[in-house]
Amino acid sequence: MVERKRLLDFLPHLVLLLGIAIVAFPVYVAFVASTWDAATISNGQMPLRPGPYFLENYYRTIFVGTSSSTREPVGTMMLNSLIMAMCIALGKIAISLISAFAVVYFRFPFRMAAFWIIFMTLMLPVEVRIFPTYKIVADLRLLDTFAGLTIPLIASATATLLFRQFFMTVPDELVEASKIDGAGPMKFFFDTLVPLSITSVAAMFVVQFIYGWNQYLWPLLITTKDNMQTIVIGIKKMIVTQDALTEWQLAMATAILAMLPPVIVVVVMQKLFVKGLVETEK
Question: What's the pTM value of the predicted model, to 2 decimals?
Answer without folding.
Answer: 0.87
